[in-house]
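Predict structure. Chain length: 173.
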Amino acid sequence: NSDDLTGNFLFYVPKENSYGFTVKTPGYITFFEHVSLESFGEGEKIYRNIYLTPIENDQIFTLNNLMFERSKPVLLDDSYPALEKLVGILMENPNLKIELAGHTDGLGSSKTKQELSYRRVERIKDFLIGFGIDQKRIETVGYGGTKPIAPNNNEENRAKNRRVEIKVLDVGS
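Prediction complete.
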C-alpha cells in the first residue's frame, strides 16, 4: 500500500535475497522489476520512480522474454512468466481487445517465416484461452520478416526482429 498523499511506500526486506515486485492497476500496463540486494550496504535504501503506461487504443508494445524452439511454434518454459503477466492484464481489463503480431528475422523463405510467425502467435492465443480469456478478444497476424525493426545483417539485429507485438484494438469502456 502507498501513502495516499505522496504515493510513496516503504518496506523492509532481508538483504541476502533478491526480489521481484509488481505494480499494477486496471487500465495500465503492469510494471515488473527484479532487484538483487547483494551489492547494497546494510540499511541502504533503494529508490524507484515507477511510471505506469496507460493502455490506449492503437498502442503497440513488445511482449518481452518470449522464447520458442528454433524454427518452431513451441514455447519454451522461460516464456511463461511473461505470458502470465499478459493474462493478468487481460483479466484486469475485461473489455480489452488485442492483436498479437508475430515477427521473424528476414533469413529464409518469406512464406515459411510468415507461417511460423502466425503459428507462434496462435500458440500464444491458445495459452491465453486456456486461462479463460475469450478468444473473441484476441486477433492474430503473422508478418514473418516483412516488418523488421533492425537490419538483418548480424545475429544481434536478427534477434531484435524476432518478436511478438501486442496492439491494443479496443480498451472498451
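Summary: The mean pLDDT is 89.
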